[in-house]
Amino acid sequence: MVLVSFLGGWPLAATANDSDPGAGTLLLRFDGQSVRWVAPTLDTDVQLSVNGPIVRSVVSQRFYNPSEQWAEASYLFPLPEDAAVDQLRMRIGERVIEGQIKERQQAKAIYKQAKQQGKRASLVEQQRPNLFTTQVANIPPGEQIVVEIEYQHSVARDGDTYSLRYPMTITPRYTPRQVVADISPTAGPAESQQPNQEQPVAPWPISDNNSNPTRIKIELDAGFELSEVLSPSHRLQASAVSPSRRTLVLNEPGERTAADRDFLLQWHPIESQTPQASLFVQQHNGEQYGLLQVTPPSLEAGAQRLPRDVVFVIDTSGSMGGEPIRQAKASLLWALQRLQPEDRFNIVQFNSVTDSLFVDVQQAIPGVLNRAQRYVSQLQSGGGTEMLSALNRALCKSCNDPQRVRQVIFITDGSVSNEDQLFRAISTSIGATRLFTVGIGSAPNSYFMRRAAEFGRGTFTYVADATQVQPKMAALYRKLEAPVLTDLKLSVPANSHAEILPNPLPDLYAGEPLVAVMKMAPSSASINVSGRIGEVEWQRELELLEGQQQAGVHQLWARNKIAQLNDLRRNQHDPVAREQIRDQVVQISLSHHLVSPFTSLVAVDTTPARPLDKPVEFRKVPNQSPHGTRLALPQTATGADMWLWLALLSLLVSAMVLYWQGRSRQVAC
After folding, report:
1. Which of 200, 308, 385, 626 could lock 417 by a disulfide, CB 3.0 to 4.6 Å apart?
2. Angle at 393 between CA 390 and CA 399, to 5 degrees
3. Who has greater pLDDT, 647 or 583?
4. Half-sphere exposure of residue 419, counting CA atoms within 13 Å on the CB side?
């Protein structure tokens, strides 16, 4: 019997024993005694190819089985939240088996049958839009299988800064009490849940060792002359191929990096080379798809600054322990200094419970600000991540004042598993408020952070380490203090039908680009963007560059369309309508060869490898603990105390049994 492996939804760190049992060996406690648990090891090679606005990524996961038993490995890994996963290859020596896209249950059945027949197989499934699992069956003792995954996503742009982020580890997700209570322990997959219920992410082992050494190589072709290329998160070796191209690798050639933080790459164009608008197109299955990037002209200097009501929400839960809480407090203290006397503000903090500095927003005058700074300085991390009550308090649909701009700045690592519940709450309560998320730590839940900001018609800012706090918050505040461009509309000529995503379009701030994907008929050379600055109408007719053929545009449109359909399905209570939306998602996923909530990639070697009389051992490959994060167990929210007391009771009972067994042997002697 495993005594305790997880407490209150947080995985305990997987560790080597005191004598260092070696790579791939984890230590579990069985009734108080140390037992070696041999897990397949993993190392990863990543090739990132940037071509203009699109990143194409090839991730090679090499699973090695160090044990003497046939093994099945399972690995939970993050990807960018807009990743469109479309290719799977399994490499066994010189042989390559191509993966096929199938409906999820069919793919799982194919994989399970192959495993039972002793065939080597791999399965890639989506758990969240930014969380995937790879399963590999029948890895022979002392041998390896390479699983190769391909995906793509869009380059991010903020003003004149272009960037990409490759997430390498996971901050463990917290499942709130209500979600735990709502889901039966005997429930099946997420698809079988009642409407609007979701499956929490299963706890996963984490390790303080270098459990997934990673090598990353980047081929950057920006499409314009570069002035600077840098990584705020890692050391880079760079070589210039041309004024617009760079080849970059992490650390020294051949070195592998610890996967304990997200990799971030940024590049900047020569100022005069920055395009105002660009259009990329692709033909697929008789349809035309487009990717449009528009940077609005600079808004007029000195435009009227409206007074604001700003609510700061800070996550003080256990997952924020260590460097994240220090970064969050520094971000908040810096933000308080930017408030003007005409602004009003409040601070909400949450862990297992929600608390606020004031009952309602207060004027940002010196005495009130001093009190707020003392309040922030005393904040400490601990407890669960009960985010819903904090969101409801901060959004406050009835608090909107038409004479003021109301903004909520949400500072968190987003380490929750109940994203759907939170998205519904934001959609219901947002009103005229705008929600801005600030991701803290080395591995935040970027899917939740970015989607929450989209639902709140705001933006997502990622602060990777303490050196970025001031510049990142300064950039965010320059946006928040600029006039807001709302009610955005994007239109093409009447004879050019287009299905444009996202829909509705988000608000924009000064210097912030609009990125949209569309399924369209042949388009003209101009596009109209309109909106409002306060009460003033704003409109620009933008000339598009000649459309460039670009591979991967159709997958990006399909990924956005699937996200839109899943949002509709999340809020749909009619089972028939939910099933119809599900069928649409499946059809789009199969047509564009994408992994989705209802489709998976599966690859099977047709030649049996494992003798059927040899058992196969299932093992989870641990993630590396995020850099700088000190994971604190929740104190109240998930029954952690109960499990801890049960564990201690079990230890006591075991000790008593051993004691009486010893006494019995003495008497017998």
Report:
1. 200
2. 150
3. 583
4. 24
